[in-house]
Amino acid sequence: MSLPRWNALPRPLVMGVLNVTPDSFSDGGRFLTAAAAVERAFQMVGEGADLLDVGGESTRPGSEPVDAAEELRRVLPVIERLAGRVGVPLSIDTTKSDVAGAAIKAGAAIVNDISGGKLDPEMAYVVAETKAHWILGHIRGTPRDMMDNPVYGDVVAEVGDELMALAASAEEKGVPGDVILVDPGIGFGKTLDHNLSLLKHLDELVGRGRPVCVGTSRKGFLGKLLGGAPPEDRVEGTAATAALAVSAGVSIVRVHDVKAMARVVAVAAAVANAR
Q: Is residue 178 part of a domain?
C-alpha cells in the first residue's frame, strides 16, 4: 500500500495505537491475543484511523525492555493477519532493527522508533534497505530512566536541533529524506513544563521542514493537568492537544481514542484550512 507525501496532506492523518502488550500504561493486556488485536484494528479503521501503529513493547516511564524474540512473538501474528486486509498502512512501533525488519517483511510500511535510531544503530540501515518510512522520536536516555531528572536549557530548541541531527544522520546512512518524519517525544524524558513548551511551540518544529508526528494521547502530563485523572479519563485533554497540533501543522496525530480524535482532527483541520 502506497504511503502519502507527508508534506502535501489535505489534513493530518490519524494513527491508531494498537498495543499488543501486557503492561502498556493505558491499554496493556486488552489486545494481547492476535484475535483481539485484529478485531480492535478493524474497529479503529471503521472509526477513522488512517494508519495503525502496532507495538509489542511498553515504553511507559520505568518500563523494562523485552527481548526481540518476545516482541516479535507478539506483533508478527497481528501484522501478518492485517497486511493487505485492513485497508490502511501499518506501522511497527519498535526500537529494534531486527523487529523492524521482520515486521516490514510481514507487511508494515512505517517504523515508529521512539529513540530515533539511538537505541539500535542498525535501524537506519534496515529502513534504507527496506524503503520503509521512519518516524524518528526524541528521547533522553531509555524508557527505564528517562524521567530521572530530565534537564534542558531551551527544550524547544534542543529537541528540534537533536531531531534535525538524527534526520541528517539517517540520510547519511542511505535513508531518503522524503520518508523521514520527526516526533518531539512528548512524555519521553520531559517534565510537565517541557511538554507544555513543546506543544505551545510545535509550529517551530513544523517550520524546520520535516513532517511531524505527535503523540499526546492519554499521557501522564494530561493526568496532572486534569486533577489526577486516570488514562481512560483523559480524552478531553487529548482532544485539546490534538487540536493544537493540527493548528500547528503536524502531519500525524497518534491516538488511542480514534473515533473522538478523528472528529477533532476533521474540525480543527477545517478551521486551520479556512480562508
A: yes
Alpha-carbon torsion (258, 135, 212, 183), positive or negative: positive
Tell me, what's the pLDDT at 129?
97
Q: How does pLDDT run across 78-129, given as a tens digit for each residue?
A: 999 999 899 999 999 999 999 999 999 999 999 999 999 999 999 999 999 9
Quote the pTM value: 0.94
224 is catalytic: no
The active-site residue, picked from 254, 259, 263, 275, is 254
Contacts of 250 (CB under 8 A, 6+ apart): 12, 202, 206, 211, 212, 213, 214
243, part of any domain? no
- Structural domain span for residue 111: 10-215
The answer to whether residues 136 and 88 touch, using CB atoms and an 8 Å cutoff, is no
224 lies in a domain?
no
Query: Does residue 274 sit within a domain?
Result: no
User: Residue 110 pairs with which residues in a beta bridge?
Assistant: 91, 133
Q: What is the Cα–Cα distance from 209 to 212, expressed in whole angstroms? A: 9
Give the per-residue pLDDT at 18.
Answer: 95
Return the DSSP state at 97. H
* CATH number reported for the structural domain that contains residue 20 in this entry: 3.20.20.20
pLDDT tens-digit series, residues 171-186: 999 999 999 999 999 9
What confidence score (pLDDT) does residue 145 get? 78
Catalytic residue among 96, 118, 219, 234: 219
pLDDT confidence of residue 25: 47
Q: Clarify whether 254 is annotated catalytic.
A: yes
What pLDDT was estimated at residue 128? 98
